[in-house]
Design goal:
single chain, 445 residues, alpha+beta, seven-stranded mixed sheet, 22 strands, 30% helix
């Protein structure tokens, strides 16, 4: 039977950054909402089972690609086994876990009884022994891996459910519709980090999995780096404190919420993921939280009003939806305002936070557009898009993205975005830029 921690509410805070002033007739209100979590243990009151150390209980499924391509080169499969062993070693005692071998079917490697093991020195040792049975052969049908992970994870009464997925190839043994159906079925049931190893996998597939399941995506071009990456992923998963947090946005009658986007640490459009939460309110899923801070961009269209008028354009709070349709409020709130003025200086000023993240969202977009144009041979338009990306990365201080761009283009003048496409680009460099294109930097204080 699960133990329960003492009632303890995580410490969340909400800060709103905006220019609330609009000119006469102005309708568009933009705001950056910064949400910060500083731990606080588990959700108490019997809502979330906790481990014996008082931390929230968790279940993790590790999905390892074992298709035939994992044998080329032979070191790739060995690196995958070593990485999975490193992840197993990082599991804290009491965590429920399983290891899945993924080919054109999904096979539970450990514990192998249709359920989950509970991490301890004994089960970690047994799991690592079982990893010796991982061998390559067969095709790739990632949807089947995800569905098995969902079945196993849902068998445990835990607060947090998480997946780690590794693939080295394209999802060739099921249709895109099958994978999408699996993602739709798993969304909201567990989060999942996805990694592509080598350079023979499809970026949009891996990033799409992570996006749908509110996890991270990345490339591990050299299989030798898998163990370190898996360890970091598992450490992050073990640091999560609260699951299924939603951003609840209420807007008054007459307003339209045009979009809600996460803009840091990565760009993720949440607009289409809204679930209704009562009159004029909607919930936007954000996944699991540890000690961290994230930024969101809200754009609200308000009815025009006369000079001197002001209104509440939106109210933002944080909740954890419950199975019975209720929600636990996490006690943090932010207000987005609109004030109409004839002060031209006030109404034309752009919030530094809004300007910064608008640029970061454009940066992610033009990188993807530029790379797509380059792939189809439209080099002039690709150069223009990637030049704009260099300009945006330079202006915002996004040094990591600027460095990745420099491996695809020769930078003549970063400030003006003047670049030349490189004639030869390593596939790993192009895939790394595409995979990490949505990663952002925080606004300069």
């Amino acid at each position: 039977m699960a133990n329960f921690a003492k009632p303890s509410v995580p410490r969340f805070s909400v800060d709103v950054y905006q220019n609330e002033y609009l000119p006469e007739g102005g309708r568009e209100v933009n705001a950056i909402v910064t949400v910060t979590a500083t731990g606080g243990g588990t959700l108490g009151g019997g809502l979330s089972p906790a481990a014996s150390d008082g931390r929230p209980s968790a279940a993790v499924a590790i999905m390892v690609d074992c298709s035939g391509s994992m044998d080329y080169p032979p070191t790739k499969m060995r690196n995958a086994r070593d990485a999975t062993a490193a992840a197993v070693d990082t599991l804290r005692d009491g965590t429920h876990f399983a290891v899945i071998a993924g080919t054109h079917v999904a096979t539970e490697v450990y514990p192998g009884d249709g359920g989950l093991a509970v991490a301890s020195p004994t089960t970690r040792h047994r799991a690592k022994q079982a990893l010796r049975r991982l061998a390559s052969g067969g095709g790739t049908a990632i949807g089947t891996w995800l569905r098995l992970a969902d079945r196993l994870l849902s068998s445990a009464d835990v607060a947090l459910r998480h997946g780690i997925l590794l693939t080295d190839g394209r999802n060739e043994h099921e249709s895109p519709e099958d994978l999408r159906a699996a993602l739709d079925a798993c969304a909201g049931r567990f989060t999942c980090d996805a990694r592509g190893v080598g350079t023979d996998w499809e970026v949009k597939e891996v990033t799409g999995i992570a996006s749908a399941l509110l996890g991270t995506a990345d490339i591990v071009a050299d299989p030798a780096g898998l163990a370190a990456d898996f360890t970091r992923m598992m450490e992050t998963a073990m640091g999560k404190e609260v699951a299924d947090v939603a951003l609840r946005v209420w807007t008054p009658v007459g307003t339209t919420l045009r979009y809600v986007k996460q803009v840091a640490p990565a760009v993720e459009d949440l607009t289409a993921r809204r679930t209704e939460a009562g009159p004029r309110a909607g919930d936007y899923p954000t996944g699991s939280w540890g000690d961290e801070s994230r930024d969101y961009h809200l754009c609200v269209e308000v009815p025009p009003a006369g000079l001197g008028r002001e209104m509440l354009a939106a109210r933002v709070s944080l909740v954890v939806p419950q199975p019975d349709g209720s929600a636990q409020n996490l006690g943090a709130q932010g207000l987005v305002r609109a004030v109409w003025t004839d002060d031209m200086t006030a109404s034309t000023a752009i919030s530094p936070q809004v300007a910064h993240y608008t640029g970061q969202a454009e940066l992610a977009q033009v990188i993807k557009q530029g790379l797509d144009l380059r792939k189809v041979g439209d080099f002039d338009r690709a150069t223009a898009k990637l030049g704009r990306a260099v300009q945006l990365a330079s202006a915002s201080g996004n040094a990591d993205t600027a460095k990745l761009l420099s491996k695809v283009v020769d930078v003549v003048d970063a400030a003006t975005g003047t670049v030349r496409l490189k004639t030869r680009v390593a596939q790993a460099d192009e895939m790394t830029l595409e995979t990490r294109s949505t990663k952002t930097v925080r606004v300069k204080k």
